[in-house]
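wait is this the right file?? whatever heres the structure
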């Protein structure tokens, strides 16, 4: 049994809004169209691609020899008809380039049903939303039982002669199976796959990337620090100098907010902690300011391939009062970290514990980082 595959790629991708045909959008290492071709190539004897008018040469060069390129039509159905006109297989798969990641396995399962004698086969997923039929005035007409509804995908498989007949008698539909249905034919539904979902808007590319195992990896981290107040020390906190406040002990400037943030970032990225990166065995950091440590930490995080989404720090102590300088603190931290989103809050502990008794100051921070 010989199989032709028609890949409908003649759409303009209006909703995607890239200004180029959607099939030519890049997803990881290749275009959507190349993804679609590579998953059907192992099972098809002939591959036909319908292109937007004027893109025939570019697409032909992109795909190389052995792919039949035909100009598409004004509608998807018209494009498929142009492909059908040159199809040589006894059976035909009709596929959307926009469902770029549909697997070879799915196509194989469609073909298996055709081998079983089915005339039309469509993959589908159960719908998750309740679907309503509405009228043109915006009122609900009915609510079909969700359990009976499925969401249709491609590749759809057909006996070529049956699909040709269906296209000859009923010309427009959003999928090919609908034309078979209109002609009274039986359409077999098989289990579809999430990765065959259609790419319509730029947001769908993130989902597609995660199907390729290239999604964003998101990680959080937590860090804390505490220092006791010390005589004759300047107070540095959240990257700022606090001239009227008593400072804290420590071999650095004792900026607990900066230290907690660094620890949170190191935790999120699996890079160890403040001690392992800037500890006493790294004399070049002795006495380093909180700002410098945050700068160095951000550089290490970046070098590891992570981007900082945000950091949040809470300062725990009776003083200094943060409120009046909160905006300044946020700006100082954000600038040290390379312009990330920062929040700074403060709390006391109702007179309890070391900071409540006024013996020192502490901070707790969280960080969110991501890696493509
Ligand atoms: N398609 C086609 N010929 C057309 C219209 C659409 O071959 N005249 C193809 C598209 O290239 C796509 C598939 O049919 O692979 C499904 O269509 P859709 O997702 O709607 O893609 P576009 O029409 O390109 O997108 P939009 O509707 O946002 O413009
Ligand atoms: Mg369209």
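ok assuming it is, sequence goes like this
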């Amino acid at each position: 049994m010989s199989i032709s595959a028609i890949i409908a790629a003649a759409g303009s991708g209006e909703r995607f809004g890239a200004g180029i045909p959607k099939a030519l959008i890049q997803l990881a290492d290749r275009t959507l169209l190349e993804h679609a071709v590579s998953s059907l190539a192992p099972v098809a004897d002939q591959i036909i691609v319908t292109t937007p008018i004027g893109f025939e040469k570019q697409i032909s060069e992109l795909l190389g020899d052995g792919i039949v390129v035909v100009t598409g039509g004004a509608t998807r159905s018209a494009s498929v008809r142009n492909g059908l006109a040159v199809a040589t297989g006894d059976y035909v798969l009709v596929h959307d380039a926009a469902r770029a990641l549909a697997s070879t396995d799915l196509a194989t399962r469609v073909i298996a049903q055709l081998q079983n004698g089915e005339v039309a086969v469509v993959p589908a997923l159960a719908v998750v939303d309740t679907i309503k039929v509405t009228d043109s005035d915006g009122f609900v007409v009915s609510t079909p039982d969700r359990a009976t509804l499925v969401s249709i995908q491609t590749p759809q498989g057909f006996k070529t002669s049956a699909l040709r007949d269906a296209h000859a008698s009923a010309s427009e539909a959003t999928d090919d199976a609908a034309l078979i249905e209109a002609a009274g034919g039986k359409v077999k539904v098989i289990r579809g796959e999430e990765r065959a979902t259609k790419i319509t808007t730029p947001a769908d590319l993130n989902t597609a990337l995660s199907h390729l195992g290239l999604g964003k990896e998101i990680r959080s981290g937590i860090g804390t620090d505490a220092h006791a107040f010390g005589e004759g020390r300047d107070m540095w906190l959240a990257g700022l100098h606090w001239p009227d406040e008593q400072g804290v002990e420590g071999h650095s400037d004792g900026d607990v907010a900066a230290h907690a943030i660094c620890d949170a970032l190191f935790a999120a990225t699996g890079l160890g902690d403040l001690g392992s990166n800037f500890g006493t065995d790294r004399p070049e950091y002795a006495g380093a300011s909180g700002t410098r440590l945050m700068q160095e930490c951000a550089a290490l995080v970046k070098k590891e391939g992570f981007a900082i989404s945000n950091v949040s720090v809470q300062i725990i102590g009776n003083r200094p009062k943060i409120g009046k300088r909160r905006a300044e603190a946020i700006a100082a931290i954000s600038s040290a970290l390379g312009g990330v989103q920062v929040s700074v809050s403060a709390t006391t502990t109702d007179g309890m514990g070391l900071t409540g008794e006024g013996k020192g100051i502490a901070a707790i921070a969280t960080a969110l980082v991501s890696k493509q």
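Residues 8-16, 22-23, 50, 72-76, 79, 96-98, 198, 200 surround cytidine-5'-triphosphate (ligand 1) (CB under 6 Å). so i think its the right one actually
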